[in-house]
Give the backbone structure.
Amino acid sequence: MSSNPPDVDYDLAIIGSGIAGLAAARVATAKGLSVKIFDKGRRIGGRAATRRANGFTFTHGAQFLTARADEFRDVCAAAVADSALTNWQIGGKAAFIGQPTMRDFAVFLGRDLDISQSVEITSIEAADNHLKFHTAEGIVACGKRAILTPPAPQTAALLRQLAPTLATIADGASYAPCWTAMFGFDEAPPLPVSPEPLQFDEGPIALANYEARRPGSDRANFALTIQASGEWSAQHLEDTSEQTGRTLLAELSSLLGVKMPTPIYEGCHRWRYAKVTKPATSTTKLTSECGRIAIAGDWVIGPRIEAAFLSGLKAFEQLSEASELD
Ligand SMILES: Cc1cc2nc3c(=O)[nH]c(=O)nc-3n(C[C@H](O)[C@H](O)[C@H](O)COP(=O)(O)OP(=O)(O)OC[C@H]3O[C@@H](n4cnc5c(N)ncnc54)[C@H](O)[C@@H]3O)c2cc1C
């Protein structure tokens, strides 16, 4: 990668290919702008994530999504028509899940967008009415405008010098972490028959999802995903993966009064920024004073996929108003 500015100068560069970044990119692209998304993760979708390992598939981030606002309901309806989402019922309420996996909803949203995964933006420099996006190797792109969608602490770090007001807004958001343990078995585990994930109001476990029972899932996907509560995850944040996985599986066995078979696959993921517990609602202004930078992400509005989507739309709308993008 060159340290000279690349030739391409995008109308808009977006950091993050999670739901917020994809929402902003879709609307900007539809208005005819040249848009580039950079994401440090290997795969599209951010926390709308799916892990494949040893032949098993795990919904290891968001489990389902709900849609209330018209803009998001319309997109969900289009995704259902495209078989990227299907209807589900959670606690008697209408919900959706990605098809065949959660990440496929993000893949649907990202269709035809220009996205580079595995590119971590380490800093943004303002120069001559342009923004230069740096990675550890050098400048990766130039853009007229930017929307940042990483979790609030990471957005704040990128904007501390460049847009201190936005960094301060991001400082106001807080999260609960989530340890997610994943187990694959060579036979169906003896879990109660339930059409939806098991949810627990108290104790270490918040949710247990037997993947074979998810709508659209392979019935031979003997995979179990256990998500710990925010409180327990915070108390055990620095525990090892092995310790955490063992504890959560033993806890679930005890809660359900069943003996689990020995897993043939075990994995654990620590989401440091899983669920927004306090959104940055102190302001409705999501753009910097220069009008060229905006912030988005679930942490701007609330702890759900829908909030992330709406924040992306809102950030682009405000950026357009601030700088006559279209
Ligand atoms: C365990 C868990 C369970 C959940 N359950 C649900 C649920 O059931 N229903 C629901 O609606 N929501 C749920 N959520 C929340 C939901 O996943 C989020 O609200 C939503 O996905 C957030 O989208 P986002 O685009 O704001 O952020 P993210 O998905 O976090 O996307 C931000 C992206 O920015 C990228 N990034 C960060 N820093 C950089 C950088 N410097 N350079 C380049 N890229 C960078 C990251 O790689 C990431 O892909 C859950 C979340 C977790 C973790």
User: Anything to note?
Assistant: The longest helix spans residues 305-323. The mean pLDDT is 94. The chain has nine helices and 16 strands. The longest strand covers residues 265-278.
